[in-house]
Amino acid sequence: MAVFGVLAAALGVVGLITPDALLTVMGFDPVPEGGRADGDHTLVFLTASSMAALNMGVYYVLAALADWKPFFRWTVPFRLLTCAVFTLAVLTGRAPAGFLGVGLWEGLGAVVTGAALRYEKRGGSGAVSGSGAVTGLRDTP
After folding, report:
1. Considering the entire predicted model, what is its pTM?
2. What 3-state class would DSSP assign to 68?
3. CB–CB of 20/27 below 8 Å?
4. What is the DSSP letter of 37?
5. How many angstroms from the chain centroid is the CA of residue 75?
6. 84 vs 44: CA distance, rounded Å
7. Which of 93, 4, 16 is nearest to 49 (CA)?
8. From CA 138, how far away is CA 120, in angstroms rounded?
9. Phi first, then psi: what are they for 128, rounded to 5°?
10. What angle in degrees, to the nearest 10, is found between the helix axes of 69-91 and 42-65?
11. Residue predicted with more confidence, 4 or 136
């Protein structure tokens, strides 16, 4: 959870500071300076989503530091939904193939988080740390 949070926050900052770099990472071709048509609000939406990513990243880090397991559980279905929506965006031509990596990152994160929570609930030999990694330590009352 902490790793995802740090990455989300970092990408949010990148999007706020250098939006074209974030577009490139996601598989979009940046538009040259002065090349946007009147009414093109790409940068507005990129600013909004980058700010949301920064906020979300901080929430994830804080939840990890607090070891807030209900939050971890809540993220699983919504990250799977995000994976499905982003993957469909690529498959239907709404997004470039490079954007598939974003969806797969969300899906993989959801599966790993869900598996770690399930492992811990079944009494596995380790506890899930805030980062989602198995630490080998058990919580004792």
Report:
1. 0.75
2. coil
3. no
4. P
5. 10
6. 24
7. 16
8. 9
9. -85, 125
10. 150
11. 4
d(CA 134, CA 117): 10
**With contact defined as beta carbons under 8 Å apart, do 5 and 57 qualify?**
yes
Backbone phi, psi, residue 33, to 5°: -50, 130
Q: Tell me: the pLDDT tens digits for 21-73? A: 988 888 788 888 778 888 888 889 999 999 999 999 999 999 999 999 999 99
CB of 14 closer than 8 Å to CB of 22: yes
Q: Mark out the alpha helices in the chain (DSSP H runs).
A: 2-17, 19-25, 42-65, 69-91, 100-121
Angstrom distance (rounded) from CA 33 to CA 47: 17
Residues 6 or more apart whose CB falls under 8 angstroms from that of 98 comprise 26, 27, 28
Lookup: tokens for 27? 């598989």
